[in-house]
Write a structure and sequence with these properties.
With 222 residues, this protein is an alpha+beta fold. Helix content is 15%, strand content 33%. The protein has three helices and twelve strands. The protein has an eight-stranded antiparallel sheet. Strands 2-1-8-7 form a four-stranded mixed sheet, with no helix packed on it. A hairpin with a 7-residue loop joins strand 10 and strand 11. The longest helix is centred in the N-terminal third of the chain and has 20 residues. It is globular and about 40 Å long.
Length: 222
């Protein structure tokens, strides 16, 4: 009996020893997800575009070009030096002229009418013709329209600019002449024995153009 008890005791102790030496189970690793960084895109501001004013619009349609045989204010246009063209001049300049009879040098009135805008006077025969008509410009602009000769010379232009445009000397230093041409049937008072001439006359004070008169001539003493 004692032998049996001893054997059981040894068996129990052996079992306990084996149990103590058995490795403990390894716990499964716990996986922790790494935090995903948050991406915030950078939004570039939309550039503000400021429109640029169009400065390429031609100005030629606003310029009144005065010549010996008529004026123009746009390509292909024609403004006659005639009382019958008052409406055309009014439309071109955007304002109507004042009209008045022209007084004669020795009293009374002539068969002429003066059409006046500030800075410009057009004198025309009452019979509707252009014979004896004249134009005088005393300002750089008339009703907002620059007034120039065919060479681009206007009131305020310098003497040197006029000469560069082809102007020649007149009777004295106060006058220059542009677009000179012969006037058949006349006699020049400046050049005795020669035919008279017409031209666009530039009146100067110092070296600056103060008036444009057309047609000027060298055969009339009035």
């Amino acid at each position: 009996m004692r032998r049996t008890t001893s054997i059981l005791t040894v068996a129990v102790l052996a079992a306990l020893g084996l149990s103590a030496c058995a490795p403990e189970p390894i716990a499964a690793p716990t996986t922790t997800d790494a935090a995903t960084p948050t991406f915030t895109p950078t939004v570039k501001p939309t550039p503000t575009v400021t429109p640029t004013a169009d400065t390429s619009a031609p100005a030629s349609d606003a310029v009144l070009i005065a010549q010996l045989d008529g004026a123009s204010i746009a390509a292909g246009s024609s403004l006659a030096y005639s009382i019958g063209a008052v409406e055309a001049w009014t439309a071109a300049l955007g304002t109507a002229p004042t009209q008045s009879p022209v007084e004669g040098p020795y009293g009374g009135t002539l068969d002429l009418t003066a059409l006046e805008w500030p800075g410009l006077t057009l004198t025309v025969p009452n019979d509707g013709s252009t014979r004896g008509a004249s134009l005088r410009v005393t300002a750089p602009t008339v009703a907002g329209h620059p007034v120039v000769t065919s060479g681009g010379i206007g009131v305020g232009s310098a003497r040197a600019e006029a000469v560069a445009a082809g102007a020649t000397e007149g009777f004295d230093a106060t006058e220059l002449r542009l677009d000179t041409r012969d006037a058949p049937g006349t006699q020049s008072l400046q050049r005795p024995g020669e035919v008279g001439r017409q031209y666009v006359m530039l009146v100067l004070e110092g070296d600056s153009v103060t008036q444009i008169i057309l047609p000027g001539n060298d055969y009339s003493d009035i």
